[in-house]
Amino acid sequence: MNQAYYALLTVQAFFSDRLDNRKDRGATAVEYGLMVGLIAVVIIAVVITLGTELKGIFNNVGVELKKATAASS
Question: Whose CA is closest to 50, among 39, 38, 58, 40?
Fold first, then answer.
């Protein structure tokens, strides 16, 4: 009788463990999705903020290169 009881406990523990892991996987996927979304927002904000500054820097480099090639010609 005890063997049947322990077998049922083992089966119950096995399935309980399998079902609990599936719940964690779903929550983990949602958490990763939120993190990816937040990272995308941060990247977009940085690109917008630094984009105009970088454009100015590259324009200055272009002007200086034109001056240097005109002076050497």
Answer: 58
Please, what is the end-to-end C-alpha distance for the chain in angstroms? 102
Residue with the two structure tokens 């100015």: 56
Provide the residue-wise pLDDT of the chain in tens; the chain has 73 residues: 677 777 777 878 777 766 665 555 666 788 888 999 999 999 999 888 888 888 889 999 999 999 988 887 6
Q: Annotate the chain with three-state secondary structure.
A: CHHHHHHHHHHHHHHHHHHHHHHHHHHHHHHHHHHHHHHHHHHHHHHHHHHHHHHHHHHHHHHHHHHHHHHHC
- The answer to whether the predicted template modeling score (pTM) of the entire model surpasses 0.85 is no
| The two three-digit tokens of residue 10, written as one number | 């083992």
